[in-house]
Write a structure and sequence with these properties.
Radius of gyration of chain B: 19 Å
Shape of chain A: globular
Structural class of chain A: mainly alpha
CATH topology of chain A: ABC transporter involved in vitamin B12 uptake, BtuC
Strand content of chain B: under 5%
Distance between the termini of chain A: 53 Å
Number of helices of chain B: 13
CATH class of chain A: Mainly Alpha
Radius of gyration of chain A: 19 Å
Largest sheet of chain A: 2 strands, antiparallel
Helix content of chain B: over 70%
Helix content of chain A: over 70%
Number of domains of chain B: 1
Order of helices and strands of chain B: HHHHHEHHHHEHHHH
Number of strands of chain B: 2
Largest interface: A-B, 47 and 47 residues
Number of strands of chain A: 2
Strand order of the largest sheet of chain B: 1-2
Structural class of chain B: mainly alpha
Order of helices and strands of chain A: HHHHEEHHHHHHH
CATH architecture of chain A: Orthogonal Bundle
Largest sheet of chain B: 2 strands, antiparallel
Distance between the termini of chain B: 50 Å
Shape of chain B: globular
Number of helices of chain A: 11
Oligomer: heterodimer
């Protein structure tokens, strides 16, 4: 029972982690809470749903197409709604991000309607793996494999490639990085592309896992993922992964213990506790402010 | 007195009255958010949650205790302010946008809690009886609006208001000048939430039925839009924004379903091209003075 719930929690947590990564990367580079991130997650889920329903493609191809679509969407949003505001007050960028978020979720509501859509049956084999008393469904294995692969790839990109180095430099000091010849606009677009891609993957996985895609799925999951990013330490990539997984496991155990009607409140209770006792998060570094 | 006021209120067409009261409540709510976001520069995304605290406090006090409405309004405001200090204390110590997330999270938690409490009648919501007072509700709304505007106008020019503006412009520089940023931010948040609580209490008694789901994220965004559209930090701007957005659905009934779509675009475009809103930076005092000067000094041309 305990192990079973742990597996369920890990599966949920992995999807939170995928989304939390986008928040943390964008915040690390331009100190913006990208409110539209949850809506990109939703857009990814809907795009995959459309691909599966209309073009009848395989779920894996739909996943890749959704990631590509959201990559473009993320770059586009940054270009239209955030780039001009990079030097104005943080409040302006934040409100603009909320505008994008409202626009996208309302658009989805108008296009797809208010009721949740489910993926067709048999989109993914329904079996499960029995390990003693614990059963792991193929779907959960898919979530572990996809999210694990993406997180490892991200670690590789950030730490082993030239663009990754540029990302780290930009997040340390935007102006100095620009002076050193880093094309910061390109780096920021790339960061949005990466984050949105991961969110899309998260969206498709959540959509298939719960078999529900709806216009407002981005709000709550986006908030929880943000809470996860703060829990791990905003700006820290391993922190977002850890935070997401911890949050997922906590949520599943809360439901198991019997507080199921409060499941959505857990993430925020955790968030407030973190802000109260360790504002820099589990793996975050305390940032010294300078004028 | 009560009878006389009742007669005056009855003179006005009920439909017009309803719109006017809605505008009044909108102004109170938006002015509250203006203290937090416009003056102190902190974004609260849970303004509707503080409104709901006021609404439920007011409703329960009327139902259970039959409390006189004037006292009830104050109690509702203080209850909202109390909660805002509880949520503001951990988050406002930190610089950055944590308040936005924490208030958003708090609003969600509160909604879940209200939906599960017996005293708020769970998901069924509460029917609110008419307020215990001989003075009709619209008069209370009017008085509240006048008091709210006056208090805010005085506050803006006070030491307190200037400290808030300093924090908004540059928190680090303000602290270096000896402004205790955390304390001022928490105070501003409490005052703004007090406004929200009063607005919520008026709303509850005016609508006569409240449900936790009425005070969700979209309601908070509604109020934020009033402040941002009219002008962050400008009292005439906030009044204009609240009046426009409250009456807009009456004129634009046909595009009801597109309303949120338009809101989203308005927010983006305003931030890109006019980040201070339509009347951003316009002060109430200067506006009054300008009109006054024009009257007293006829143009010499």
């Amino acid at each position: 029972m305990l192990w079973q719930q742990l597996i369920n929690g890990l599966a949920l947590g992995s999807t939170y982690a995928l989304i939390a990564l986008g928040y943390t990367m964008v915040y690390g580079i331009i100190q913006l809470i990208n409110f539209a991130h949850g809506e990109i997650f939703m857009a990814g889920a809907f795009f995959a749903f459309l691909m599966v329903m209309v073009l009848k493609v395989n779920i894996f191809i739909a996943l890749i197409l959704a990631m590509a679509f959201c990559m473009l969407l993320g770059i586009f949003i940054e270009f239209v709604a955030y780039r001009r505001l990079r030097n104005s007050s943080r409040l302006s960028a934040l409100i603009s991000a909320i505008g994008v978020s409202i626009f996208l979720s309302t658009l989805a509501l108008l296009v797809f309607g208010a009721d949740a859509k489910g993926f067709p049956d048999g989109i993914f084999p329904n079996g499960q793996l029995q390990l003693g008393s614990v059963s792991i469904s193929f779907l959960q294995i898919l979530i572990f494999v996809v999210s694990g692969f993406l997180m490892l790839t991200l670690q590789f990109i950030v730490h082993r490639t030239k663009i990754g180095k540029a990302m780290r430099a930009t997040s340390q000091d935007y102006n100095t990085a620009a002076l050193m010849g880093v094309n910061v606009n390109m780096v920021i677009s790339f960061t949005f592309a990466l984050g949105s891609m991961l969110a899309a993957a998260g969206g498709v996985l959540v959509g298939v896992y719960f078999n529900a895609v709806s216009f407002n799925m981005g709000l709550l999951v986006g908030l929880k993922a943000f809470a996860a990013a703060v829990l791990g330490g905003i700006g820290s990539i391993p922190g977002a992964m850890l935070g997401g997984i911890l949050l997922g496991v906590t949520e599943v155990f809360t439901v198991t213990v019997g507080f199921s009607s409060y499941r959505d409140a857990i993430a925020f209770a955790v968030l407030v506790l973190v802000l109260l006792f360790r504002p820099s998060g589990l793996l975050g570094q305390k940032i010294q402010k300078k004028v | 007195m009560g009878n006389f006021l009742q007669n005056v209120v009855n003179q006005i067409d009920p439909y017009v009255m309803q719109i006017l009261v809605n505008i009044g409540i909108g102004i109170i709510l938006a002015l509250g958010l203006n203290v937090i976001t416009g003056l102190a520069g902190q974004l609260s995304l849970g303004h509707a949650a503080f409104m709901s605290i006021g609404a439920f406090t007011g409703a329960i006090l009327t139902i259970k205790l039959g409390m006189p409405f004037g006292v009830n309004l104050l109690c509702s405001g203080f209850m909202a302010a109390l909660f805002s200090v509880l949520i503001g204390f951990p988050t406002l110590r930190l610089s950055g946008d944590y308040l936005a997330i924490a208030t958003l999270g708090f609003a969600e938690i509160l909604k879940v809690v209200f939906l599960n409490l017996d005293i708020t009648n769970r998901a069924l919501g509460l029917s609110v009886p008419p307020p215990y007072s001989s003075i009709p509700l619209p008069v209370y709304v009017l008085i509240s609006v006048v008091l709210a505007v006056t208090a805010l106008a005085l506050m803006q020019e006070s030491r307190f208001g200037r400290a808030l503006k300093a924090i908004r412009e540059d928190e680090i520089a303000a602290e270096a000048m000896g402004v205790n940023a955390t304390r001022y931010k928490i105070q501003a948040f409490a005052i703004g939430s007090f406004y929200a609580g009063v607005g919520g209490c008026l709303y509850a008694h005016f609508i006569a039925y409240i449900n936790p789901s009425d005070f969700g994220f979209l309601k908070s965004i509604d109020i934020l839009n009033m402040v941002v559209l009219g002008g962050l930090g400008s009292i005439p701007g906030v009044i204009l924004g609240a009046s426009l957005l409250t009456t807009a659905p009456e004129f634009l009934g046909f595009m009801k379903q597109y309303r949120m779509l338009v809101y989203g675009i308005i927010l983006i475009i305003l931030m890109l091209f006019r980040p201070n809103g339509l009347l951003g930076g316009v002060s109430f005092k200067e506006m009054v003075l300008k009109i006054f000067r024009k009257r007293t000094q006829p143009s010499r041309a």
